[in-house]
Amino acid sequence: MSPVAFHLLGTDGAARLGRLETAHGTVETPAFMPVGTAGTVKAMMPESVTATGAQIVLGNTYHLMLRPGAERVARLGGLHRFMNWPGPILTDSGGFQVMSLSKLRKLDEQGVTFQSHLDGSSHLLTPERSMEVQRQLDADITMSFDECTPFPASEDQAAQSMQLSMRWAQRSRDAFVARPGYGLFGIVQGGVYPELRRHSVEALLAIGFDGYAVGGLAVGEGQDEMFRILDATVPWLPADRPRYLMGVGKPADIVGAVLRGIDMFDCVLPTRSGRTGQAFTSRGTVNIRNARHQDDGRPLEEGCGCPACRNYSRAYLHHLAKAEEVLGLMLLTWHNLHYYQDLMRGLRGAIGEGRLARYAADFAALQDCGDLDPL
Amino acid sequence: MSPVAFHLLGTDGAARLGRLETAHGTVETPAFMPVGTAGTVKAMMPESVTATGAQIVLGNTYHLMLRPGAERVARLGGLHRFMNWPGPILTDSGGFQVMSLSKLRKLDEQGVTFQSHLDGSSHLLTPERSMEVQRQLDADITMSFDECTPFPASEDQAAQSMQLSMRWAQRSRDAFVARPGYGLFGIVQGGVYPELRRHSVEALLAIGFDGYAVGGLAVGEGQDEMFRILDATVPWLPADRPRYLMGVGKPADIVGAVLRGIDMFDCVLPTRSGRTGQAFTSRGTVNIRNARHQDDGRPLEEGCGCPACRNYSRAYLHHLAKAEEVLGLMLLTWHNLHYYQDLMRGLRGAIGEGRLARYAADFAALQDCGDLDPL
């Protein structure tokens, strides 16, 4: 078995149906990866994550290296065993979160020196250390270490940041220890500047990766701008490697990105929203805390196969949210992850049958039907 | 089908093996009832509660009448349907919690006027209203409305309080609407005074109930005193009715009370402790937040069949607790409820085979083995 293998099974326009094979199992694409920041998809048992249809989860290098520590996870048998998730795991590089969460950062050519947001302890994250940590965690898919270009950034700033990330991408590739079924993805940067994005793709292709991620989006630029950058980036990516849009996104973002040829996604939105009483449905978002649900005996979404919809009324979910009961977080998180996986199943089915344009149009029409709560 | 039926299947000394039949199913006794205060056993899916072996849960009248409201629960099909618990439910009368949680209480012969701890709204709870609320909730077992005698209380105070509760017991009986499979339990009061307890039993027997609870214990009097009161009370209770010790307790309290002829228990300890990192094991209590667990690859308890012990290390549970992850609450709550149900299974098996004294001695010896964390 070579590195993670990607099989392109079909296309519908720019959209792709695929299969990713890793050391810990297979992932059908387009795929949504629930985020398991600190070694747990928040408020979910791993078997429940599996029940939603998720085949791969994401772990955060920054969080896990600080607590419980990557060396400790390695001693305990790796992240799969530690968190009881036997399937594939992708870990990010830590680059994004060290900039958004840590304190007293100093970034130079070598890497980033920072203080833990947990206890103030000092740490150095470099491409080499990021590769080491992700190997200790036993990630099936390792992300190369990059700087997430701030937004907004001038073209000059974006260029300098991207070029640093490309040098770090080479060092990540050099430090990554190849193992059968394990892969390393490069990350395209370049801000909102198509030329920079194209240069970034060329630099990554010259190094060679098992997959290609588009980074630095969903950071405030808006959906139109994000789609514009995808239109200017994705066509340069090789067809025989998976494409991962990092940190995206809302359901409509995902549909639009799949239409543009993206294969993989991750986002905290379904889990985080589940903990604040926001639910995703085919007719838009619902705020279950809204008083209009308090006597509503209907499920959150008719026909949804998740436990929240099969076994409970909106009135009950409203009650749990108002009473701040843990079960409310559990059920809404489950529903939202189920909704996202239903969406991915729908997208895969539509691509396979060559009816994605119709699927996307129906999706958009229903989402706007408008009798629901604003997110 | 008459009211809840109790079948005494066997005895071992004063201890009893029994079976309680209700409108929503059967309960093997001695039984422990997980507390589902606000229409949910905190941090548990109902199917997980069932998986621990629990056959009946408790709901709190005080909480449910204030939020979401008993009329609302009735409109939505009753508490079983509302919370997706198809099995038997016992509700308390609200008497205990109105005194411990509400504000600006005024207690007189009629009942208790109080302000909600949630929104300050004014309410009146009487024996008649308590019966109505518990019927709206559709409780299989309704508790008569009583005043939980404060502790400490002089003999005169305890007598007056008990006599008020006995008058309220009669009013509860009069207001209770008998239905097949539904029952009403009376509550013995009388503080720490054996003569008062006996008078209370006599008063309740004169009225006639489907089961008898011992109330007003586990309020600070200590285990020795609690056992002394049980020794002075339980022998007067009729053999053909279930006996319920309210709000108890620690595992050792339960073993001692079963030895004295108690059939039913409820307590927030396993669920509340699970949310603060405390776990019950056969060798005593464990504080999973203790740093000694951080590299411990062993389960919380070897041989335990709960998911926390089957699938996770102490190191992982420690990590979840330190990171304040919801999954930590979920897994420890599940383990603790599983532990309590294992204890009840063990007690029932021992009574059935006439070896309860040996079982209790082995239990006590192991609990004291001493290398564990203080609760």
Briefly characterize the structure:
In chain A, a hairpin with a 2-residue loop joins strand 1 and strand 2. In chain A, 42% of the residues lie in helices and 19% in strands.
Output the keywords.
homodimer, TIM Barrel, 375 residues, three-stranded antiparallel beta sheet
Describe the fold and architecture.
The structure is a homodimer. Chain A is about 40% helix and about 20% strand. Chain A has about 375 residues and is of the alpha/beta class. The first copy, chain A, has two domains: about 5-265, Queuine tRNA-ribosyltransferase-like (TIM Barrel), CATH 3.20.20; about 275-365, no CATH class. In chain A, β15 and β16 (about 285) form a beta hairpin. The radius of gyration of chain A is 20 Å and the shape is globular. Chains A and B meet through α13 and α14 of A and α13 and α14 of B.
